[in-house]
Design a protein that fits this description.
The chain has 14 helices and eleven strands. It is α/β, with parallel strands linked by helices. Strands 1-7-6-5-4-2 form a six-stranded mixed sheet, sandwiched between helices. A hairpin with a 5-residue loop joins β8 (about 285-290) and β9. α4 (about 65-80) runs parallel beside α11 (about 250-260) and α5 crosses α10. It is globular.
């Protein structure tokens, strides 16, 4: 071999597997089981990988049989004509908006907390038609953009939007020529908690984005569903935005495994989240947003504790617990022991505060509050 080529070949080679990879992976799974940060941190299991590697070896830009089979299943499951597999929920939502809007001027209405926009204040449990109507833009006034889409999110901050309110909004949208899109990243939780079929939950919407890595434990992936013509146009935009993927069979296989084996675990997740809330309430910890599905938001200031104190002490435990903020998320790999250890820590901190004579902060339960609170050593909430 040409020595120069041989040198380049050696430069290109890389081994990313460490000598302790198996132990590292086992330790990582233990860390995940004791982290309340997000449900996106779940890790693929050996069983998921074993199933995934048996899938087809096509190219998704041209023809990928396993991915096509997954898309067909999701379309049928949601009661829509077609589906498109994309890399993330963000891409799914953005493709939906771009495909629906066509040409400006247009405007979108969504909950201020929605991921499509941002999340900040807990105004009330969910968005209603009464909230939406004052913000809908009609007419031809060139100083404002007509409302083209109403985007809802279900669940939002772990809370379930009543289907009756969704239908009421959808009826209004239909009568006024406004499209409906659902960010259904965690819609699986709604189906599991309310025992409502996925197609019934999706019926009021023109398009829906469904995530597989939030809650279901797939390593990556989202499906956007809607009419055939809409999905075909979205496929064009996916390619334009750099979202055309190649050998996605292994990803589709991971998703198929998650749907088959992990969806059924969600009721246990919800029960564990409710156990966590009940334990906090027993300790007089404030609840900013309750555990309707997989997450809750809590306020330890009601017992004189600040978030950073909890986070520091949780990280210092012999078997650490992962926390970052007021949000506590339970997922399919959360261990019940982690929940009990967290509650035990809160109890210990509360007892220490009582012994130190620290008086809890007065909390106005009626004021508009930020449910997302990041840990800070200042007693002033982050603005």
């Amino acid at each position: 071999m040409d020595p120069k080529l041989a040198s380049i070949i050696e430069q290109v080679k890389v081994d990313i597997i460490t000598p302790t990879q198996q132990r590292d992976n086992a330790r990582r799974l233990e860390e995940v089981s004791r982290s309340f940060i997000s449900d996106t941190i779940t890790v693929p299991t050996k069983e998921m990988f074993a199933y995934a590697v048996q899938t087809s070896l096509g190219d998704d830009v041209y023809n990928e049989p396993s991915t096509i089979a997954l898309e067909a299943h999701i379309a049928k499951l949601t009661g829509k004509e077609a589906a498109l597999f994309v890399s993330s929920g963000t891409m799914g939502n953005q493709l939906a908006i771009r495909t629906h809007l066509q040409q400006p001027p247009n405007s979108i209405i969504c909950d201020i907390r929605a991921h499509i926009n941002k999340f900040r204040l807990l105004l009330r449990h969910h968005l209603t038609l009464k909230d939406i109507k004052p913000h809908v833009v009609f007419g031809t006034d060139i100083h404002s953009a007509p409302t083209r889409i109403i985007c809802l999110e279900n669940t939002l901050d772990g809370t379930i939007m009543p289907q009756s309110d969704i239908i009421e909004i959808a009826d209004f949208a239909l009568k006024n020529g406004i499209l409906m899109h659902l960010d259904g990243a965690r819609l699986w939780h709604v189906a599991a908690e309310n025992r409502t079929p996925i197609d019934e939950l999706c019926a009021p919407f023109d398009s829906v984005s469904l995530c597989f890595s939030k809650g279901l434990g797939a390593p990556v992936g989202t499906c956007l569903v809607g009419p055939k013509e809409f999905i075909q146009k979205a496929r064009w935009f996916r390619k334009i935005f750099g979202g055309g993927m190649r050998q996605t069979g292994v990803l589709a296989g991971s998703v198929a495994y998650a749907l088959t084996h992990n969806f059924s675990l969600l009721p246990r997740v919800h029960a564990l989240a409710k156990r966590l809330q009940a334990g906090l309430e027993e300790l007089q910890v404030g609840i900013l947003s309750p555990a309707e599905t997989c997450m809750l938001f809590y306020d330890p200031s009601t017992i004189g504790i600040e978030y950073w104190e909890i986070i520091d002490r949780a990280a210092a435990l012999p078997n650490p617990i992962g926390l970052t903020s007021s949000r506590l998320v339970i997922h399919i790999q959360t261990s019940p022991e982690a929940v009990e250890d967290f509650l035990s820590l809160i109890k210990t901190l509360k007892e220490e505060k009582v012994q130190a004579g620290i008086v809890p902060l007065a909390v106005n339960s009626n004021e508009m509050r930020n449910v997302y609170v990041r840990a800070t050593r200042s007693s002033t909430p982050i603005k």
